[in-house]
Amino acid sequence: MSSDHHDFSPAERAGLYRAIFERRDVRSQFLPDPVPEDVLARLLQAAHHAPSVGFMQPWDFLLIESRDTRRAVKALFDGANDRAARHYAGERGERYRRLKLEGILDSPLNLCITCDRNRGGPHVLGRDSMFDTDLFSTCLAVQNLWLAARAEGLGVGWVSIVDPDALAGVLALPAGVYPLAYLCLGYVSEFLPEPELAAAGWRQRLPLTGLLRGDTWHTEAPEAVLQAVAGLSPQDASR
Amino acid sequence: MSSDHHDFSPAERAGLYRAIFERRDVRSQFLPDPVPEDVLARLLQAAHHAPSVGFMQPWDFLLIESRDTRRAVKALFDGANDRAARHYAGERGERYRRLKLEGILDSPLNLCITCDRNRGGPHVLGRDSMFDTDLFSTCLAVQNLWLAARAEGLGVGWVSIVDPDALAGVLALPAGVYPLAYLCLGYVSEFLPEPELAAAGWRQRLPLTGLLRGDTWHTEAPEAVLQAVAGLSPQDASR
After folding, report:
1. Percentage of residues in chain B with pLDDT exceeding 70?
2. All structural domains of chain B
């Protein structure tokens, strides 16, 4: 099918899947060791090779070391997190407040990946029908970086509990530049065997077979695919 | 830094980077060979292990084989693409019309990855300040699948030139389910050495050093990082 020189060796293929299955959203295990520049450069290059609508490449990368800046972002998080906690009552509220949801000051480096919504001019190829595909492209860059970080032994945590307008103010972003992903980055003491929210009893992984459909929403997925999915080895907590 | 059993072997790490750098948005190189169920199952499992806000896992996967359904989607593409082409005049317009931008009927399988905006209830952890993080999470699943496909020798093309409301109609999606990514999937005759839009002279890759900043938008990135990035080997057209 594919020609030989396009084939991955078993170890290469295993490396990709390992990064996918062992990647974690890290909040609590950061070590203070600095991130070497050559490693950081490889992560940024991985992000920059994400696909983007119309080859727009709408991303910029803010490398945030300043503790003053990070304290300002942490203050935004604290305010937003207090407001979010009010949605949960009783035992669920207690559990929410016990969760550690960011490593802004614990990690040696913060990284904001932004989306410049005006890059490439007013008519970006492929963006006419779905205007937010620039944001979607930037997400693909985030995932490339996240996986490369795992392969380099680095943890990444995405802090989404922060008002984007206020964050844009702290980072002095110009109009039209959206702070899509505020990430904490660093070496870690360990990668947890399963997602932290699952381990904490907050929410569990859904069975994949329940998420498969056929030609339309109301059509069943082909039985052979359902059987193949049901026969996969579980990946969480399996190593 | 990281403990030994968390380290990737050089071949594992190379496999991840290879998938990242050799992944392409495929439109023209699809082969008709069917995608084996066990391979498809691994791709879906890879997608399902993407991170998601509050462990929301908002995605569903529609496996679209029906040629009637695909012809209906192709008709939506044709209409949207005609409208988009009007944005470009003269030589640019000619060039636009020569680009092949989808493989809906050429590929053996179409796959729509949707985002259920109501999954997990009204207050999903981490989504309070950035409501669209459910869409962003679904993008991360798309990228996992795209990379896994490359490692399995399969090409993927994302068709964004289609009105999402009309597409939701064709696929009978219920209210609140957004057709985030309409993908064409299949084995390919080759993976091009560089992105098709670059090869076609539409738009080139931006220099990464120009996208790096420091603690704020107006602060320069650290010189040591800029130097490390400038010293990276180029990845396009290098294999």
Report:
1. 96
2. 10-203 (3.40.109.10), 205-239 (no CATH)
